[in-house]
Amino acid sequence: MKRLLTGTALLTICAPMIAYAAGATDAAPIMAPDGASRVQAAPEGAESTMSSDPLTHLNGVAAVSNEALSAYYLKGADVLGSDNKKLGTIDDIVFNKTGEAERALIAAGGVAGIGAKEVGVKFSDLTFTGQDVKTPVAQINTTADSLKAQPLVNKDKLGADMVLASSLVGAEVKLQESDDKGKISDVILDKKGVAKYAAIDFGGILGVGEKRVAVSYDKLGPVVADHPILLRETKAELAAAPAFVYAADDSTSSITMPVGSGSAPRE
């Protein structure tokens, strides 16, 4: 695993989400259990309130806050039911055109993932706990039978105004001013489930070697199949952007994007 140098300048970037191409959605209905609420758990002794910014900017790095969520680490996270028994795992996240995580797609049933059916639930119906952003556990106020009774989700019928986390994480990005390219290694959500940042890996295009930076999510253009995502940033802006890390005391990022890989490897 390569160790990445931290950035040398501090840049706070937080902006509203970009709107993806509008279109009607005809996705399968999703379950909305009564009584469920989503509250991201904070560690003992943490402040009860926090900034809406899911990253903490300090000493030239952008570190993930305690209450942030990571699209990369949410994939594969266990989903527990109202009886605390495992119902399945999160397979994907669906963002709407305002950038809010609208649905979680859950692989339920089957053995070791084989034969599992994918159903959709409201993202806001999930409550998240875990030691940190890398170890999320989701809970929903329903039972295994109720979940498995939901219709299958067809990812091809989500609508033109929806975008999957799996379409973002691992996607190639291209700078607006040149043909220089990088890859998205993660999308960071705030505690309300709104994507705020894209963590992007660049190799050698900034004059400082390889670097992972946190870029405001509204700097990304629309997702178009078989095309790099346009990144509305300049080389100068990327060079000044803080290096992205998962913990404030890290001097390196925690995951790297291997050449030719569609997604970053889990630790």
Alpha-beta classification:
mainly beta
Number of strands: 16
CATH topology of the domain at 73-157: SH3 type barrels
Q: Biggest β-sheet: count, sense, barrel?
A: 7 strands, mixed
Average of pLDDT: 74
Please give the oligomerization state of what you see: single chain
The count of helical stretches stands at 4
Helical percentage: under 10%
**H/E element sequence:** EEEHEEEEEEHEHEEEEEHE
* Beta-strand percent range: 25-35%
Ends apart, CA distance between termini: 10 Å
Coarse morphology: globular
Q: What is the CATH architecture assignment of the domain at 73-157?
A: Roll
User: Can you identify the CATH superfamily of the domain at 73-157?
Assistant: PRC-barrel domain
Global Rg: 18 Å
Low-confidence stretches: 1-51, 252-267
CATH class of the domain at 73-157 equals: Mainly Beta
Helix-strand layout with pairing:
Blueprint: E1 55-58, E2 61-64, E3 69-70, H1 71-74, E4 78-80, E5 86-95, E6 101-108, E7 117-122, E8 127-129, E9 137-139, H2 144-148, E10 163-164, H3 165-168, E11 172-175, E12 181-189, E13 195-202, E14 211-216, E15 229-231, H4 235-240, E16 243-245
Parallel strand pairs: 2-16, 4-9, 11-15
Antiparallel strand pairs: 1-2, 3-12, 4-5, 5-6, 5-10, 6-7, 8-9, 11-12, 12-13, 13-14
Model description:
There is one protein chain. The chain is built from four helices and 16 strands. The chain has 267 residues and is mostly beta strands. It has a domain at 73-157: Roll (SH3 type barrels). The strands form three sheets. Strands 4, 5, 6, 7, 8, 9 and 10 form a seven-stranded mixed beta sheet that branches. Strands 3, 11, 12, 13, 14 and 15 form a six-stranded mixed beta sheet that branches. It has a three-stranded mixed beta sheet with strand order 1-2-16, with no helix packed on it. It starts with 54 loop residues before the first strand and ends in a 22-residue tail after the last strand.
